[in-house]
Amino acid sequence: VNNAGISGPTLPAEELSLEDWQRTIAVNLDGHFLCARRAIPLLRDAGGGSIVNMSSIGGRLGYAKRAAYAAAKWGIVGFTKTLSIELGPLGIRVNAIQPGMVEGPRVERVMREKAESIGISYETLQDRAFQRISMRRGVTADDIAALILFLVSDSGRNISGQAIPIDGDQTSLG
């Protein structure tokens, strides 16, 4: 499981520094590349296996004021699909998971920053976010772990090259 990532700054694109852009891309996208590059020979020598890359629904929908983060997460999807094509003949499956709003301190911090940047309360922003999720709740770490376990198990043996949202149906309401 490749889970290298940072949220990066919450700013309009024109206010984003090149340094912040490059750091966010480096951690989120280059980190996945470096982990995969190291894992591929090990999986090949083992006769196959599975790589799961952590993307985000930001890599499906985009996010206002999160240009570097969204670009990196879209990049992970392209990287996943490319690796799936390259590694499938070796018996190596590659998928990406695209979590929506994951309950916990990181998402709370990002949402507080965004709320402040647009001049509303955290509670108002959280309520708006839940209104864009048909199930009206965030995703838990246990939800994500269960999907990963399925993908790397024999039950997921024919799933590869996919970017799978786990978001309480946020992608439908966008």
From TrEMBL:
Gene3D superfamilies tied to this protein: NAD(P)-binding Rossmann-like Domain (3.40.50.720)
UniProt keywords, alphabetically: Oxidoreductase
Pfam families according to UniProt: adh_short_C2
Keyword Cell division: no
GO-annotated molecular function: oxidoreductase activity
The keyword NADP appears for this protein: no
Sequence similarity: Belongs to the short-chain dehydrogenases/reductases (SDR) family.
The protein, known as: SDR family oxidoreductase
